[in-house]
Amino acid sequence: MKILIVEDDEKVGSFLSRGLKAEGYLTLLLDSGAGIFDVLSQFEPDVIVLDRMLPQTDGITLCQQLRSQKVSARILILSALSEVDERVKGLRAGADDYLGKPFHFEELLARIEALGNRMAAGERTRQLTVADLQLNLDSMTAQRAGTTLTLTAKELGILELLMSNSGKVYSRERILTNVWGLNEDPLTNIVDVYMARLRKKIDDPYPIKLLHTRRGLGYCLQE
């Protein structure tokens, strides 16, 4: 598999190139997005590892340009901006995956392997399902009983966390850390406020309730 790395940090780029070559991948390293379309026509990568913060053209804009030109290579964005809002921006720009910095090389490898498997298997989407509630992790869109739900980035982040481990109870502190990246709640009840908003959207219109409160413990999502 051929991997194009677009990374302006010399140390990170060199590390990625050497590490991926050691794993048997054919790699090419660029330090910016300049001239990338000329490179694509010659190198024809299967996967593009794209830094979010690039000189001249940032990674999000470059990702959008690649997709507008019908570039079919899988795109993995690397970024120090790893909050849910930023991940949603990257995925909506056309990226197939988004990994925050700093990262473990083993996780990067696993994600690249997953992208390769998805490419080989066609356009199979990553999707979480609990009862009739579905969350598409590629497009970050949710549906219940076939109806599209209008959710904010934070609501999508909460939903992804709870659906990834259906039935597992998450404390308010754990949700705050995973979705907001905070260890303390500056507004004291922000998690409860968002849970109430999410419940109105995914549960109130439907007879079967999926979002449950465990008093003194936190929240879980299950049928």
UniProtKB/TrEMBL annotation:
Positions where 4-aspartylphosphate occurs in the chain: D51
Record-linked Gene3D superfamilies: 3.40.50.2300, 6.10.250.690, Winged helix-like DNA-binding domain superfamily/Winged helix DNA-binding domain (1.10.10.10)
InterPro entries given in the database record: CheY-like_superfamily, OmpR/PhoB-type_DNA-bd, Sig_transdc_resp-reg_C-effctor, Sig_transdc_resp-reg_receiver, WalR-like, WH-like_DNA-bd_sf
Pfam families: Response_reg, Trans_reg_C
DNA-binding region residue numbers: 125-223
Record flagged with keyword Cell inner membrane: no
Signal peptide: none
Residue ranges occupied by any Response regulatory domain in the UniProt entry: 2-116
Domain spans labelled OmpR/PhoB-type: 125-223
Domain of life of the native organism: Bacteria
Keyword tags: DNA-binding, Phosphoprotein, Transcription, Transcription regulation, Two-component regulatory system
Name recorded for this polypeptide: Response regulator transcription factor
Species of origin: Alishewanella maricola
Classification lineage: Bacteria, Pseudomonadati, Pseudomonadota, Gammaproteobacteria, Alteromonadales
